[in-house]
Amino acid sequence: MFRGLLLSALLTLGGYGLSRIPLLQQSGFSPLVFALLLGIVVGNLPLIGGLASIQRGLQVCTRWMLRGGIVLFGLSVTLQQIFKLGPAIIALDAGVITVVMVAGYFIGTRLLKLDRDVTLLTCAGSAICGAAAVLATEAAIRARPAATAMAVATVVLFGTMAMVVYPLLYPLAGLGENVFGVYIGATIHEVAQVVAAGVAVGPDALANAVIVKLVRVMLLVPFLLIVGQWWFARQPRAAGSEKQKITIPWFAFGFLAMVVFNSYVTLPAALHSGLVLAGQIALTMAMAALGYETRLEKLKALGLKPFALAFSLFIMLMGGGLLTVHLWMV
């Protein structure tokens, strides 16, 4: 087990190191993304990727560290932030997530003929909170590492595109800075990408964008509870076999508990920052392990269809989101 943990830790250090290189830092990619890429590279090296002695440690990362990281992610959100913009924002975010998930699942499974796990993870990453949502959904449905890696890749690609396109769209959108911030928070993939786009537009846009985005993060909890029940209820089973046991994603309740705790208990700044960093490191180690377990031939077998799905969702979020905000907020 120790060897697998050590490998994930080294890949995580490499991810953080790459994210600090000035040229790469300008890309806006998080250490989590670099750790995933490093994991894929190392895992596909001859005579290294198949070592059985490290599998147990990798499983600890992809299961327990992943869940622990999601729980600590709750320390980045407070109920006060969520309630600040009122119930209309919660309804807006819930509507965006519902439409993207339902329409995306139809496009992915029916039109593009993608596997269910690839489709669901890609939709979750686009609809809710990027890579964190992909990882949380992966933990709830036990998806394949290749499906998870592909979903994260689409989030990185189109979230990065949104960081560039949205500030250019602002003068043409016909929205004030405050309302455009709501649009950013309701439709861009990752929290970091929302911050980058908000900063480019202005301080009022940034403030609203972050709050609206955090509401989307909070909605990850009911999403996981619903999708976990639905996923295993629809799993095919052999004739005469027992129905597969539905897994409740208990870490979602841990995430919610951390949000409530963070709302009413003020920790020393150093301790709070340390816990948030610990959660980020745990998620990065989990992503490194998932990358290591991903085989390039399996990614290649998925083809370009996941990117076609993610592009459809990007257009849906950008265009449909702009129309919705115009009707909802203006």
TrEMBL record:
Judging by the UniProt lineage, the source's domain of life is: Bacteria
Indicate where this protein resides in the cell. Cell membrane
Q: Name one GO cellular component term.
A: plasma membrane
Main location per the UniProt record: membrane
**Which regions span the lipid bilayer?**
29-52, 64-83, 89-108, 147-169, 181-202, 214-233, 245-265, 271-292, 304-329
Look up and give the membrane topology term: Multi-pass membrane protein
Q: Which PANTHER family match?
A: INNER MEMBRANE PROTEIN YEIH-RELATED, UPF0324 INNER MEMBRANE PROTEIN YEIH
The record's comment on protein family reads:
Belongs to the UPF0324 family.
Q: What is this protein called?
A: Sulfate exporter family transporter
